[in-house]
Amino acid sequence: MSAAAMDLIEIFDGEGAFIFVDRPVGGMPIFHVQTSSALRAGEPQVAGRADCGVMLATEELRQYPAQLNSMIQTIANDITVSAAFSDTVEMAQYLATEARKVTYAPYVSAAGQIMKDLGRHAG
Fold first, then answer.
1. What is the model's pTM?
2. Is 17 helix (H, G, I), strand (E, B) or coil?
3. What percent of the chain has pLDDT over 70?
4. What is the Cα gyration radius of the chain?
5. Which of 1, 69, 87, 95 has its CA 20 to 30 A from that of 60?
């Protein structure tokens, strides 16, 4: 599990859930929702990369429909995204459900490329 994921589990005291994204080569992404409490209890991470950053999508995002839609699109299609965290299980499930409905159009965001480059040069 990534350091970012472990930090979020601690910051939110085991509340919330992660969306881990499998991105098979040439195929549609597969979204897995896994609770922080399960990860904290030692359940292995179901998907995603252990060396990745984590996007943060709190319940408050529902108040901003344009940003919520952008988050859903990013989770679904930005190939640099392999994990997202929400402070509630319900929000994580909603984001995963909506991401499954998005037309698959993969891309690499500028922010995602920067994070990828930083991770490669860290350490």
1. 0.83
2. strand
3. 84
4. 14
5. 1
